[in-house]
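Late entry, evening session. Most of the bench is empty. Finally got around to the prediction I had been postponing all week. Sequence below, unchanged from the version circulated by S.P.
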Amino acid sequence: MPHPQLTPSARALEIVARLRDEPAPLLAILHALQDELGHLPEAELNTVADALRIPAGDLFGVVTFYHYFRTAPAPTHWVCEGPACRMHAQSGAPLPRGSHIAWSRATSEGTPNR
């Protein structure tokens, strides 16, 4: 549950304190932190590494190994360049209401034009 009055590093420490006694707590801590912050900023990863007394490089290795974890905020819009999207865009059909997808149309030189 997010705590707006806490800084991200304080939230990271709270999550570590809450989950550190779990068996193999690292993944649970990282999941909880990302669920709360939306991604895993470097400063908070360093806070977690210090609190768990593990090398920051090892922690970054875990974060970059698992595809679920993000070190940057998730994009708010997606650009669809696949064949199905190109066919749909060429048909002139409008985007679904509330969609966060942007069609990519090729220019006369064949390069994407967003």
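Two things to note before I forget:
The chain has two domains: 8-65, 78-113.
Confidence is low (pLDDT under 50) at residues 106-114.
Will write this up properly tomorrow.
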